[in-house]
Amino acid sequence: MRKILTIIASLIFVGSPSFSDTLSTVKERGKMIFGLEAQYKPFEFRDENNEIIGYDIDVATEIGNRLGNVAPAPVDTNWSTVIQSLNNGDFDLILGGMTATAERFKRVNFSYPYMDASSGLLVTKASGITKPSDMDGKSVAAGAGTPQINQLELAAGEHSINYKGDIKTFDDDTVAVAAMKAGRIEAYASTLVSLLSLAQSVEGVTVIPFTSEKWSQEFTAMAFRKEDETFRNAINGIIVAMKEDGTLGKLQEKWFGQSFVDILPNMAPEW
Hints:
Elements: H1 2-15, H2 22-29, E1 31-36, E2 39-40, E3 44-46, E4 52-53, H3 55-68, E5 71-76, H4 82-88, E6 93-94, H5 102-105, E7 109-110, E8 115-116, E9 119-124, E10 140-143, H6 147-159, E11 168-170, H7 173-181, E12 187-191, H8 192-199, E13 205-209, E14 219-220, E15 223-224, H9 229-244, H10 247-256
Parallel strand pairs: 1-5, 1-6, 10-11, 10-12
Antiparallel strand pairs: 2-3, 3-4, 7-15, 8-14, 9-12, 9-13
């Protein structure tokens, strides 16, 4: 009987990755491996040399410096499976413009917010959409696996909206813009800050806020495995320090044109 129990325990151990001290591992390795999808400008995207750059890369670089000569090592992965990949041990954390949500909190813990994640709508000027209720009879879309899909559904109920067809989803903002240019969609929901950046390079579009009492203020946070509390607490301390010494605000001004530090709470999103 004891032998059987030992075998079962061994199988459980083999099947469940163990992450006893990710913080020490990161420091000893001299590299912080983080998951993202490099299609989310200005958080992360590839430049003309195919290098991943953006706000998140700069934030990760600063965190690495403060951890002690730790280099950032982004892993460009599939966003739809990024949480599963984290829990499988493919990287140390998710640092990829992730909006903290109740559904995601079931599987990961979040850092203190390091960016605003309020929603917005990218709309064609010809659509006549100036507020969410104007989307009645319009074709709409959102990023695949993002909170904005649910927000579009809630908005439909709140404003008695009947969209033209189903809510479409796209894995890449640039593909969504191409669909908008082709007349396949008239509104695209995403985070306000990413849309403001996107709209600068697209003609014939504008960005409007997408807010409601149906959903709460949302923030961008880093995601950690549930057992990685020591690592998460260390990163939270660095985020607070970066806010207080002005570093985080300067990085936001660089990539978003303004600082959002004043609205970011020193409290991790939980449900």
